[in-house]
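Thread: Branched-chain amino acid transport system permease protein, structure

OP (GT): Posting the sequence first so everyone is looking at the same thing. Length is 322 residues per the record. Can we get the structure tokens written out before standup tomorrow? I want them in the notebook alongside the other entries.
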Amino acid sequence: MKKLLNNWIVQVLLFLSLLGLTAYGSQMINDIIPPYLLMIAFFIGINLIMALGLNLITGVTGQLSLGHAAFMSIGAYSSAIATVNFDLPFLLGVLIGGLIASVFGVIIGFPTLRLTGDYLAISTLGFAEIVRVQFTNMKITNGAIGFLGIEGSTTFPIVMTIAVLMICLMVWLENSRNGRAMLAIREDEVASSAVGINTTLYKIQAFAIGAFCAGVGGALFAHTTTFIQPTDFGFQKSVDILSIVVLGGLGSIPGTIIGAIVLTAAPEILRPLSNYRMIVYGLLLVVIMIFRPYGLMGGVNLRQAVRRAMMFPKKKQAGREE
């Protein structure tokens, strides 16, 4: 069975089957749940896509970035311009938004990735503010008034399919040679460089892929809300995405999924509390981080936990037979 799963043809077929089941299942959900809950599910998927990119940068590679909203805005505006001004297909516009954001990820990566820790965070924050101010003053983006006329082409099956695609990409990447090199950089960058790992190259790769995820998320966001303005991509948006990664557990893909669900749905669930909902929301975050300082899934190897759960009944049954 293990040899069969290692066959790349079988892996591709399983991957395509998973995407097909995701599209079919999400279409069924789309037809059943109310529009309000469907919109929350939309934003859960979009936030998950962006958080997976930041998890690769901050959680896997260990580079603290506060500029993820900049890549999101680049993807959103690039996709909107491609579909509205140039009349390109929606999915092509999403891909263009992701690719342009990825290019900017590489551009910002070269001069800033010599920095580490707080200095890197401040430089990425500065980059995000520069991008926001530029979009505020550009005619093609309609400045501070906002970009109008974007078609609401985003559907729930498309969001969920792209989200599952990104999850599979991140799982594959983390288990690849590149992923292990990124993990080594997170643990000790000096030691990684000493054993021959090109730390700059892998950090730029992480930024490029993370920025691509943010750009795709931004493009989906633009075609969901049908209206975007520079204030949608301020510092608070970067903090929101970072909170998802930290709450779920740095470097944990299952944790990122849980964090996206919890932090996206919580403000809506607490909406009946009116003016007190954000206070309760903040208190919940504080309590969770007190009892789970490494995040909800931080330090938990889900694969080993599942294997242990599957093996335990067999051992217990064998013990009874003896």
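GT: Both are above now. Quick notes for whoever picks this up: The mean pLDDT is 86. Residues 34-235 form one domain.
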